[in-house]
């Protein structure tokens, strides 16, 4: 049995299928973990959702997955470059959205944690899981629509244990699904979205700050890194290698750390 952890699909269904074939993935024997952002930007968002659900994949939610849920069930609107209409118009949309809405923000096995964007250096793995459970309860509760309606926003931009209500939930989601650069006091920046040279003054990638444990963190979200984590102070693996932007789709074999890539079939795309 092997566990394959695959980076952001972003609707790149053809590459997803080709990568699984290269891996000789067998759902009766192997496990499939997806690091979030299954949808949007690529042409096969609907097919990616259907494939992941049919294969029994274990997925964490990314910012584009939340965007889909907000658009479908929180009164949000699609943006110009979104490729989500096929999902919203699909006959099985409710089953697919129900499946997506049941996914967590973290997946843990021993000292390994998979999360879409990252976790704060001060958060232990156990604490991160507990915060994830708070969001899951809101997503799966009777007020899920209200939660999704009020989810998006950049404030608060710094975690405090005494945060309450929607501010608390929004901050948890922003850390785990949107974070890139933080300051030494763990303030989040949401403006810079490119490579490391786009860091605002006083900010650095979250993985360049040390932790007090030996955690191995697997994340996606940051295609501009191209799978690299320079000057990382922790054991961390970036798995979003920009398939939707003409890069590649990457799988990591959890047990060995081996990487397998499938080149994108898309060229000339912009974010």
The secondary-structure element order is EHEHEHHHEEHHHEEEEEEE
Q: Given this structure, which CATH class is correct? A: Alpha Beta
What is the architecture at the second tier of CATH? 4-Layer Sandwich
Number of helices in the DSSP assignment: 8
Shape: globular
Approximate helicity band: 25-40%
Enzyme class: hydrolase
Pfam family, one: Metallophos
Function: Hydrolyzes diadenosine 5',5'''-P1,P4-tetraphosphate to yield ADP.
Catalytic activity: P(1),P(4)-bis(5'-adenosyl) tetraphosphate + H2O = 2 ADP + 2 H(+)
Question: How would you summarize this macromolecular structure in one to three sentences?
Answer:
The chain has 271 residues and is α/β, with parallel strands linked by helices. The chain has helices spanning 13-23, 45-54, 63-73, 85-88, 93-101, 125-139, 144-149, 165-178; strands at residues 3-6, 31-34, 58-59, 106-109, 112-115, 181-183, 188-189, 203-205, 216-219, 235-238, 248-253, 259-263.
Description:
It comes from Vreelandella vilamensis. Keywords: Hydrolase. The protein has 271 residues and is an alpha/beta fold. The chain has one domain (3-263): Purple Acid Phosphatase, chain A, domain 2 (4-Layer Sandwich), CATH 3.60.21.10. Helices cover 30% and strands 17% of the residues. It has helices at residues 13-23, 45-54, 63-73, 85-88, 93-101, 125-139, 144-149, 165-178, and strands at 3-6, 31-34, 58-59, 106-109, 112-115, 181-183, 188-189, 203-205, 216-219, 235-238, 248-253, 259-263. Strand 4 and strand 5 (112-115) form a beta hairpin. The termini are far apart. The model has no long low-confidence stretch (mean pLDDT 96).
